[in-house]
Design goal:
Helix content: 40-55%
Strand content: 25-35%
Low-confidence stretches: none
Shape: globular
Oligomer: single chain
Largest sheet: 6 strands, antiparallel
Number of strands: 6
Order of helices and strands: HHEEEEEHEHHHHHH
């Protein structure tokens, strides 16, 4: 549980008593690769913190094409934010890509923690703001950068994910077909 406390400590300082209270409101589970933690159409009741392994959020369009929205590896948080905040059915799946240990924080316990440890509301507000900024940056990149530039930026930003995530899912994240991604990657490697 040290990793999640270190993650929180980057933004707010908790006393040992507050750390204990926070941890008492979470549960930790180990999941095998390919486990689906959330299905599209369900209401998201949890925020997930990745201790180890890799998760992804994605949706599937009417043509049964997957669109990867995000990845989360060790030290990252993930959820269907629309569904979690609105408590309405979401459109994202959350799946384990690589065997993982994940800390679950329920919406109900998160709300209780806001009252019991007000500085956690600040922590989660900042997490949400950072997520919003990252998604806006990604949207602007998709509108203004070439696929090659997006891939190079992905490699710089997430070097660990290149080896851990299947190429077809990186292609989906970048908004290109697996075939185009393979050709583009070969071309970049030859440079």
């Amino acid at each position: 549980m040290e990793l999640i406390l270190q993650n929180i400590a980057k933004i707010v300082a908790l006393t040992p008593e507050e750390e204990f209270l926070f941890l008492s409101k979470t549960t930790t589970h180990k999941y095998k690769a390919k486990t689906v933690l959330l299905n599209a159409g369900e209401v998201a009741n949890y925020t997930y913190f990745v201790n180890s392994g890799v998760l992804r959020s994605f949706n599937i369009n009417d043509n049964i094409v997957e669109h990867v929205l995000s990845f989360a590896c060790s030290g990252w948080w993930i959820s269907d934010m629309y569904s979690l905040l609105s408590q309405k059915p979401g459109n994202l799946f959350i799946q384990v890509l690589e065997d993982a240990e994940v800390v679950l924080l329920s919406k109900e316990n998160q709300e209780a923690l806001y009252k019991e440890i007000p500085k956690l509301e600040r922590f989660f507000r900042i997490l949400t703001e950072n997520s919003l900024v990252a998604h806006q940056e990604r949207l602007m990149d998709n509108l203004s950068l070439t696929a090659e530039e997006r891939f190079q930026k992905f490699c710089r930003k997430y070097p660990d994910l290149i080896q851990k995530v299947p190429q077809k899912q990186i292609a989906s994240y970048l908004g290109v077909t697996p075939e185009f991604f393979s050709k583009m990657k070969s071309k970049l490697l030859r440079k």
